[in-house]
Design goal:
heterodimer, A: 7-stranded mixed sheet, B: alpha/beta, Pyruvate-ferredoxin Oxidoreductase, domain 3, 6-stranded mixed sheet, 35% helix, globular
Amino acid sequence: MSGVRQVVGMTGDEAVAHAVKLVNPDVVAAYPITPQTIIVERYSDFVNNGEVDTSFISVESEHSAMSACVGASLTGARVFTATASAGLALMYEILYVASGMRCPIVLAVANRAFSAPINIHGECTDQLVCRDASWVSLFGESAQEAYDETILSFKIAEHPDVMLPAMFGIEGFIVTHALERVETLSKQQVEDFIPASRIVRDRFCPDENKTFGSLVLQDYYMEIKRQQEEAMQNAYKVTKDAMQEFSEMSGRKMEILEKYKLEDAEYAFVSYGATAGNAKAVVDRLRAKGEKVGALKIRLFRPFPSLDILQVLSGIKAATILDRSATFGSPGTIVQTDIASALYGQENVPSLHGYINGLGGRVLTLPEIEEVYEKSKDYNAIGMTSTTDWVGYRK
Amino acid sequence: MKILAEITDVRINGRGGQGAVTASRLLAEAAILEGQYVHAFPNFGPERAGAPVTSYARISPEPFYEKTEVYEPHIVVVIDPTLLDYVPVSEGLRDGGTIVVNYDGEKDSLVQYFEGVHANIYKVAGSIIATEEIGRNVPNLVMLGALIKVTKLVKVESLTKVTLNRFKGVLGEKNVVAINRAFKEVE
């Protein structure tokens, strides 16, 4: 513990920009898109004012942004970028290149609904559909968590046992543009937490002849993919350890799963991002009425912490999964299907009730969340072990 | 943790370009300065200069978790009096809540707009104060001066500090004079 703890009012986007400033990466290549824009605007101010040493590369698209990040990362540079929605979709091809070439790029996602119809507001589908891209993936609930996860992500991504890119998401407007109090860290704290530069085993260098990104066919492609899976499995422990270290350094408890009033709970909410805040508020309301209910917040989405989730939900009767993402024709909501896989075949596990909600910035209000909770209890009471509904829309 | 009933929700009704977003932000920054907890945000849509806009500030002395928009404010601040004829500014207002309006007419004529609304209604001639003290009809922070007098949400010293931090030099000082005048003149 060092440095004076300062409290500042910042929006989620500003919190990310200020945290990146403390990290002072070598390269930022980004293209602006609402509601991420403020991150790169603020950061380009820092570059312009000489407050950081970063080379800021303005590019003409997100595909180019991520491509520039990959190129920079292969030289051994520490690299950051940020995007949202359509921008992330445009990066999608290069997301796989970044992870396949083991570039520990950090990407902030201002989670926003996909077009069409065009919409600029909060929804997490954009990030969730990148689940198979071999990126570490985290979600944050608040400006504070945006700030913290920015710094944490570099630590995880660049760990020699991981060497994979990492993305973290905060929801558009309700977090990115909302002012909250943020406890900041000192430059010294961040320098102590993250090495001054990346540990690089192999990189593009003018003095050496090397090939990166070569063609690999049937003979070795699968071995390289398998190495990514092992790195992703390593990321689980690395993230746990990094969060532990971050907690000690910052004085703020940070865990891959946040458990709220779950000790004696019979029922649970499961959510991530800003929705987790609303779930906790509803837990307080329901507890006041005598309900034995708690809330589980998922901060680490990839690698998915299956065993931890199994452990936390064991003994719970019914889990209400509030999923702010859209999926169509799926056996459940995106997060619900992961949880179902984690719990399958185990005894003493809850019935799972997934609710697609909050699309395109729609708000599932606290009274509506209470209604959904009652619905889950009713499903459970009649023996339904798995249900999926859309809630909070005009029928 | 606070339950929703113990949190103060403020809605600011204005028009695009009048600084409703800045007002909610500075109100929240002043609250943070006093050690309070906040969630303040604009309602972003297809807004442009002159169109009705809203921004929000949720404030509590204790930490809270809610991350929803504000549907049932305890307090409504109306920056632009011309909204009264077009926008239902008391919509969702809590029973017994507070409305502070930028209005230069008699209070009796203002009260007519809120027939059947059970609320404490206040007015201050925000546009006149802004024009006289700042030199421009930008009454957003002026209205905060009136707001904090009647609600005691934050201290005038805190609002002064964040205003001077945001607007350097003469503009900040003029705004502070205007805030203090509204603080005195609100009725």
